[in-house]
């Protein structure tokens, strides 16, 4: 399949067969992840592959009991990781200040995300399915304890990878005109949002799994109705980040 065709037919997979990924395949997924660009080549991420059934069970509970963590062919947690760099600075008895701010954190988040998406695209090119799991951030302190995360690290999301048992319909994206800006930013209009809502209302009503009477802006209103995961700031502080 042409790569563009693969990308535009992506949908998250939330049901996997029992088949686990072979060691070679898991190694190749890691190679793919590592091949992405990295700001100033800091490589500020780590990928924790979780295979211990008890840990998978605990992570699944943390992510609201969804079934597609334990059942995935492999499960990874992507960590924004400045601990490696802290060790270099400490070795040279240098201040860690430059690792602790928003800029360093942003770099690590971007690096980790590029690695995850590169792994995802490669996995999908092999016919595997993927699903990102932000639910691991429901309790950052617990996940950090479970994975023994040191200072200057932050667990961003999980990634389930496996052989699809069921594939969802492709979700219609915002029209390109709503995300593409030429030369300067132009805010979206309520009319544009209403047009997209019509498309999404029809998608949500007709989709095969979990059909519902909603649209995109209603979902966004619900999602951003009040601040979520308010323990994040305290966790970042605990990890050594000073914002
Ligand atoms: C960082 C991130 C976290 C996500 N967390 C979850 C999650 O916890 N559970 C889940 O079912 N899907 C999760 N998703 C998948 C999104 O819901 C999905 O990508 C989005 O609805 C678009 O659907 P599609 O991927 O099928 O096109 C996450 C996606 C991203 C990028």
Automatic annotation (TrEMBL):
Gene Ontology molecular function: oxidoreductase activity
Pfam families per UniProt: Nitroreductase
Superkingdom of the source species: Bacteria
Keywords carried by this UniProt record: Flavoprotein, FMN, NADP, Oxidoreductase
Domain Nitroreductase: 11-163
InterPro entries: Flavin_OxRdtase_Frp, Nitroreductase, Nitroreductase-like
Family: Belongs to the flavin oxidoreductase frp family.
The protein's name: NADPH-dependent oxidoreductase
Organism encoding this protein: Enterococcus florum
UniProt lineage: Bacteria, Bacillati, Bacillota, Bacilli, Lactobacillales
């Amino acid at each position: 399949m042409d790569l563009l065709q693969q990308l535009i037919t992506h949908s998250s997979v939330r049901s996997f067969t029992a088949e686990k990924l072979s060691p070679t395949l898991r190694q190749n997924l890691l190679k793919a992840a590592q091949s992405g660009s990295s700001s100033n080549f800091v490589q500020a991420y780590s990928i924790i592959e979780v295979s211990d059934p008890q840990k998978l069970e605990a992570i699944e509970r943390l992510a609201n009991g969804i079934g597609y963590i334990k059942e995935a062919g492999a499960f990874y947690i992507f960590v924004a990781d400045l601990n490696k760099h802290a060790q270099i600075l400490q070795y040279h008895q240098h201040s860690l200040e430059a690792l602790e701010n928003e800029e360093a954190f942003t770099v690590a988040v971007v690096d980790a995300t590029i690695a995850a998406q590169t792994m995802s695209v490669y996995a999908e090119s092999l016919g595997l399915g993927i699903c990102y799991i932000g639910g691991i951030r429901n309790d950052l302190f617990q996940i950090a304890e479970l994975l023994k995360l040191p200072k200057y690290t932050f667990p961003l999301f999980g990634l389930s990878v496996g052989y699809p048992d069921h594939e969802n319909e492709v979700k219609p994206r915002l029209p390109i005109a709503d995300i593409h800006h030429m030369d300067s930013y132009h805010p979206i209009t309520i009319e544009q949002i209403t047009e997209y809502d019509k498309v999404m209302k029809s998608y949500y009503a007709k989709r095969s799994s979990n059909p519902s009477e909603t649209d995109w802006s209603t979902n966004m209103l619900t999602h951003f109705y009040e601040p979520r995961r308010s323990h994040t700031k305290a966790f970042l502080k605990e990890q050594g980040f000073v914002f």
